[in-house]
Amino acid sequence: MTMPTPQCPWRMQVHHIHKETPDVWTLSLLCHDYYPYRAGQYALVSIRNSADTLRAYTLSSTPGVSEYITLTVRRIDDGAGSRWLTQEVKRGDYLWLSDAQGEFTCDNEPNDKLLLLAAGCGVTPIMSMRRWLAKYRPQADVQVIFNVRSPQDVIFADEWREYPVTLVAENDATAGFASGRLSRELLSKVPDLAARTVMTCGPAPYMDWVESEVKALGVTRFFKEKFFTPVAQAATSGLKFSKLSPMKTFYAPVGSTLLEALESNKMPVNAACRAGVCGCCKTQVISGEYTVSSTMTLTEQEIAAGYVLACSCHPQGDLVLA
Ligand code: FES
Fold first, then answer.
1. Beta strands in the chain (DSSP E)
2. Which of 4, 34, 114, 283 has the fewest other C-beta atoms within 10 Å?
3. Domain boundary among 97, 127, 152
4. Is 258 in the pocket of ligand 1 (CB under 6 A)?
5. What distance in angstroms lies between residue 190's CA and the mean position of ligand 1's atoms?
6. Where is the domain boundary, 53, 71, 97?
7. Ligand 1 mean position to 271 CA, how many Å?
């Protein structure tokens, strides 16, 4: 079986698949070579072993602790990657992964007091780091608050029994769950909150709320995972984009990245890392003013020809796209 794209050079075989909740599965992968990664990082997965559909998933396993490399994936009905991984991939199949990527990790965090906050599938890097901290920094004082829709949605339910955790269920809270959502009241009960490093992962509005609340409560070291970006509604005014092939005109609010403009208008674009690292979102701009925050995977010739990484392209005015 040949490598679908040089971006995903790691071939891994599905050893087994475990159903975590009604709509979340963990795939345990065997990698025959040593695969270097850090707790909390993610990898791009080549979907259907193709060159042009890559999706980012957290490596929910923990280096030096877990027996397998694991991906924990929620099924999203219109998600090409998650549908394939959760419904079609079988034991014995091969997947192709990129190098591990991302800076959302605790292994260089000097503070021994941490608060890890997760919502839904955002628990995947949090569990990876929790195991890592237990093994390599057993002296660390680690508090975890994990928000779920209902008690049946607790991912890694058995494993959480090994660690102190506050579980919060929005619906049908049973014994062992706080009822509702993460609140200022719950945060205020965390001992020494202001002295802790807070790390959070979950839907973007949840992380934004967490950031403003913990900072208001005195936290100064705050980190969030960035690739869970909701797709915005299509705009009808603002920056204008004229696409030549296929011919189409669309709009996005001033301040949007080119990727946000494309996605909110349902224009075809691949995006995995959303951080200017993977190169998936390469797009050609024919004319218009823009700045870029990453050109990492582009050659000088491509840059000269107007190629940008859409996730790292900040339009300063109307753009014409190829
Ligand atoms: S999505 Fe990875 S570089 Fe843009």
1. 10-21, 24-31, 42-46, 54-58, 69-74, 94-97, 113-119, 141-148, 166-169, 177-179, 197-201, 221-224, 239-243, 248-252, 282-287, 290-292, 307-309, 313-315, 319-321
2. 34
3. 97
4. no
5. 36
6. 97
7. 5
